[in-house]
């Protein structure tokens, strides 16, 4: 009895420490914004040179700096600056090199057809059978199982507080959250999931994004993010389980179920939100992918 | 007795302060944005406008409430990038109309699936005539989507010229598409493509 009370105390203490660390972690983030302003106030040329290293490396051409300036500087841009920016855009090379475009477009079309005629019917059927709450729980379960991916990538990126948060989340969700089916770490303890993947780790270690590649079924990627996918697969306990205990078919089933479940909640709508209103869906998806990756690497 | 009254009054005071404080610190652009969003939500929640058969009416009302805050001309200008300057006034006018239509069709239809999402304002940066308002959409599944609004003070009126969803700038996304088309083909062909898309959408909704 006494020991269990002690255990509870230790447990609560760890959570408090983690919460404090999360707060401490979040404050530099908000401080990070003011640091941007002095950068913005410099002339664009210096700005370019001063841009945090990883950005240069995320995108193969200097153009990312142009577009990023457009994102961040309008806050202070005067009318003339604006004209300047438009002039900057003149040299407009794409955000990412895409020498394989004919091949990529073919795969994109295949993926799009596969999505609309094969995968979407599957998940809409699944939707009608399984209530949303259950689907969210399934996602929580898979997310919890894949904790090592986020934990190790936090470590690789030097985010020790993030790693601590992930560890605390895993402990809470695996116990209080009934084997990860619920997410009390977020709802009760406000410990946010740390979205870290190996592609980001590679970017933080100054690897170039490389050319844009579209993979069948997987979708948009770059050379770096493909390497990232392989790294994440190696860190993913699901792949260890499949490798040691399951037949390839069962492993594949596992993976597909996770994917379909994810699509059924919101990924499917995200895909449609990007491609449907687009004039050129291929470019729209490519651009959205690259912009989103830049944001995630910056975080 | 008196003490109790005082403490309860204090409590209520603090509570209400906590509730309205975001409105206090939010500057003009943020306030305007949140007001507009609230107006939009009011329409979506209006029981007399619920249901599929009312969809058209609801969309129309929503568009009337929401569209004034968007600066479609500025959006079109930025979406065309360097190609904007070389356009004639007529071409510009036509393009703005078409681009406005793309936005309307793409995003007003999305509101049909509204199911109690909330918007909270995170921060606001303002520098002279430009401002960025960071918000978060919280869905009923507790997922959070970060949405930033870039706003511009168009003599006396704050208007939105770009929406950035999870780091993806809407204007940049369209600029990539338009640029890619304009590398290979003329402006006329681009207009043709946009019109074709519009026609397809109209036939599919009928």
Describe the structure.
The complex is a heterodimer of chains A (299) and B (206). Chain A has 299 residues and is an all-alpha fold. Chain A has a two-stranded antiparallel sheet with strand order 1-2. Chain A is built from 15 helices and two strands. The longest helix of chain A is centred in the first third of the chain and has 40 residues, at 2-41. Chain A starts with a helix and ends with a helix. Chain B is an alpha+beta fold. In chain B, a hairpin with a 2-residue loop joins strand 3 and strand 4 (157-165). The chains are: A mainly alpha (299), B alpha+beta (206). Chain A binds chain B through residues 30, 33, 67, 70-71, 74-78, 86-87, 89-90, 92, 94-95, 132, 136, 183, 186-187, 265-266, 273-274, 276-280, 283-284, 286-288, 291-292, 294-296, and chain B through 78, 81-82, 84-85, 102, 105-107, 110, 123, 125-128, 130-132, 139, 141-143, 150, 152, 161-162, 164, 166-169, 172-181, 190, 193-194, 197.
Keywords:
heterodimer; A: 299 residues; mainly alpha; two-stranded antiparallel sheet; 2 strands; 3% strand; globular; B: 206 residues; alpha+beta; five-stranded antiparallel beta sheet; 7 helices; 57% helix; 20% strand
Q: Topology, please?
A:
The complex is a heterodimer of chains A (299) and B (206).
Chain A: H1 2-41, H2 44-50, H3 53-58, H4 63-72, H5 79-88, H6 101-129, H7 132-145, H8 147-156, H9 160-175, H10 184-187, H11 198-204, E1 212-215, E2 219-222, H12 223-235, H13 237-245, H14 248-275, H15 281-298
Antiparallel strand pairs in A: 1-2
Helix pairs in contact in A: 1-9, 6-14, 7-14, 8-9, 11-12, 13-14
Chain B: H1 2-25, H2 28-45, H3 55-66, H4 72-80, H5 89-108, E1 118-127, E2 130-138, E3 144-154, E4 157-165, E5 168-169, H6 170-184, H7 187-205
Antiparallel strand pairs in B: 1-2, 2-3, 3-4, 4-5
């Amino acid at each position: 009895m006494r020991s269990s009370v002690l255990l509870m105390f230790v447990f609560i203490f760890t959570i408090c420490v983690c919460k404090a660390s999360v707060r401490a972690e979040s404050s530099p983030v908000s401080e990070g914004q003011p640091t941007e302003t002095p950068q913005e106030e410099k002339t664009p040329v210096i700005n370019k040179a001063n841009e945090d290293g990883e950005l240069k490396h995320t995108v193969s051409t200097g153009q990312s700096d142009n577009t990023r300036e457009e994102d961040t500087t309008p806050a202070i841009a005067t009318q003339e600056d604006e004209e300047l920016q438009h002039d900057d855009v003149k040299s407009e090379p794409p955000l990412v090199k895409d020498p394989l475009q004919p091949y990529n477009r073919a795969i994109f079309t295949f993926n799009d057809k596969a999505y609309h005629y094969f995968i979407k019917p599957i998940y809409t059927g699944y939707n009608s059978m399984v209530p949303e709450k259950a689907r969210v729980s399934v996602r929580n379960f898979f997310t919890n199982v894949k904790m090592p991916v986020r934990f190790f990538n936090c470590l690789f990126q030097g985010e020790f507080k993030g790693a601590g948060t992930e560890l605390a989340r895993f402990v809470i969700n695996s116990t209080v959250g009934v084997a990860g089916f619920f997410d009390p770490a977020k709802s009760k303890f406000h410990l946010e999931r740390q979205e870290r993947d190996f592609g980001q780790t590679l970017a933080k270690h100054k690897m170039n994004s490389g050319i844009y590649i579209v993979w069948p079924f997987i979708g948009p990627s770059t050379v770096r993010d493909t390497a990232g996918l392989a790294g994440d697969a190696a860190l993913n306990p699901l792949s260890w389980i499949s490798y040691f205990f399951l037949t390839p078919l069962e492993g594949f089933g596992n993976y597909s179920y996770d994917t379909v479940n994810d699509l059924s909640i919101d990924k499917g709508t995200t895909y449609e939100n990007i491609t449907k209103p687009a004039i050129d869906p291929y470019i729209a998806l490519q651009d959205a992918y690259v912009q989103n990756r830049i944001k995630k690497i910056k975080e | 007795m008196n003490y109790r009254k005082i403490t309860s009054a204090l409590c209520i005071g603090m509570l209400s302060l906590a509730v309205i404080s975001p409105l206090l610190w939010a500057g003009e652009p943020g306030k305007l944005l949140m007001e507009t969003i609230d107006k939009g939500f009011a329409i979506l929640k209006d029981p007399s406008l619920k249901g599929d058969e009312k969809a058209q009416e609801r969309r129309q009302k929503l568009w009337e409430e929401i569209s004034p805050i968007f600066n479609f001309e500025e959006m079109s200008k930025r979406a065309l990038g360097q190609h904007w300057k070389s356009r004639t006034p007529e071409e510009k006018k036509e393009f703005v109309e078409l681009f406005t239509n793309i936005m309307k069709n793409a995003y007003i239809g999305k509101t049909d699936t509204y199911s109690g999402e909330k918007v909270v304002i995170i921060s606001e940066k303002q520098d002279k005539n430009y401002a960025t308002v960071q918000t978060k959409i919280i869905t009923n599944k507790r997922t959070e989507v970060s949405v930033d609004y870039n706003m511009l003070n168009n003599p006396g009126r704050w208007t939105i010229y770009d929406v950035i969803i999870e780091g993806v700038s809407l204007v940049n996304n369209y600029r990539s598409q338009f640029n890619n088309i304009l590398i290979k083909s003329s402006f006329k062909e681009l207009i043709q493509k946009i019109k074709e898309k519009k026609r397809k959408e109209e036939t599919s909704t009928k």
